[in-house]
Amino acid sequence: MPLDDAPRTDPSWVTLPGMDELLVERHDDGVVVLTLNHPDRRNAMTDGMTARWRETIAGLAADKDLRCVVVTGAGNAFCSGGDLSWLAERGAEDVPALRERMLGFYRTWLAIADLEVPTLAAVNGAAVGAGLCLALACDLVYAAEEAKLLAPFTSLGLHPGMAATYLLPRVAGVALAREILLTGRTLTGREAASAGLVTRAFPRASLMTEVMEIASRTAANAPIATRLTKVALAGGGHADLGAALRWESLAQPVTMASDDMIEGLAAQRERRPPRFGNA
């Protein structure tokens, strides 16, 4: 059953044998764009793509020049979720083996959340199940207005996975999470933005231009302050006011003692863009 009814007419997007299932595009400003590249299968998370993702995220975690990561999909879809074709042979594995297999899969893809730099999802088309969770694991989620976002686990006879029962309530609230996970409700990108499931929605034609501009602005900010701010906001922010003040009274002095603050103040005084070094 098609997950995105937009036509696939561009032959350049057909994945050929040996084609890289994850494209990595590096920009001079420290922005890296990761493109899920299996458009003939709506960018389903195949074993090959999963292995490539694991290797790439590990490399990015050690990249001192990295400032921001953008994740998107090739063709008309963002990601149709896990490649479930192997489930037809599920009788060959028992529950403990399946659990280990799924934990490894979840942890590989959700490692995007462990990167210290800001991560942006550009949801250019259908984001389904685990694909939707991948997007929600990013710090900021931008969607094409026409994109379809859904998590149809129960209609497939499956319990939700890929941290769906954590990510959806955390991002969208419990009420909308229940509706999406229990009824299978599909939201367009425009509806998802109005409901707070995604950060903003843009026309599909301008989505990547808008997201890349946001990524470039984000990458231009002071890296130490940006990374510490991401830590502060992890998991939805601090538990209470006291915890926030304890963290900020330590983290802000760290940045006050950095070369970044000196450069930032000098740039403001001289009315020029700041030139920050690496964290």
TrEMBL record:
<dbReference type="Pfam" id="PF00378">
    <property type="entry name" value="ECH_1"/>
</dbReference>
<dbReference type="InterPro" id="IPR014748">
    <property type="entry name" value="Enoyl-CoA_hydra_C"/>
</dbReference>
<dbReference type="InterPro" id="IPR001753">
    <property type="entry name" value="Enoyl-CoA_hydra/iso"/>
</dbReference>
<dbReference type="InterPro" id="IPR018376">
    <property type="entry name" value="Enoyl-CoA_hyd/isom_CS"/>
</dbReference>
<dbReference type="InterPro" id="IPR029045">
    <property type="entry name" value="ClpP/crotonase-like_dom_sf"/>
</dbReference>
<keyword id="KW-0456">Lyase</keyword>
<protein>
    <submittedName>
        <fullName>Enoyl-CoA hydratase-related protein</fullName>
    </submittedName>
</protein>
<comment type="similarity">
    <text>Belongs to the enoyl-CoA hydratase/isomerase family.</text>
</comment>
